[in-house]
Amino acid sequence: MYLVLGAMNEEIAAYRDVFQVISEEDWNGFPSYRMRYRSLDLVVAKSGVGKVLAAMVCQHLLEVYTPQAVIFTGIGGALNPSYDIGDLVVSRDCMQHDLDATALGIPRGKVPFTSYHVLEADPCLRAFMQGFAPSWGRVWEGRVLTGDQFVAGAQRGRMAYLIEELEGDVVEMEGASVGLVCTVNRTPFLLLRIISDRADGNAPSDFSAFLGRASSHLAEALVFLLDRLGERGE
Question: Which residues form the Nucleoside phosphorylase domain (predicted)?
Answer without folding.
Answer: 3-222
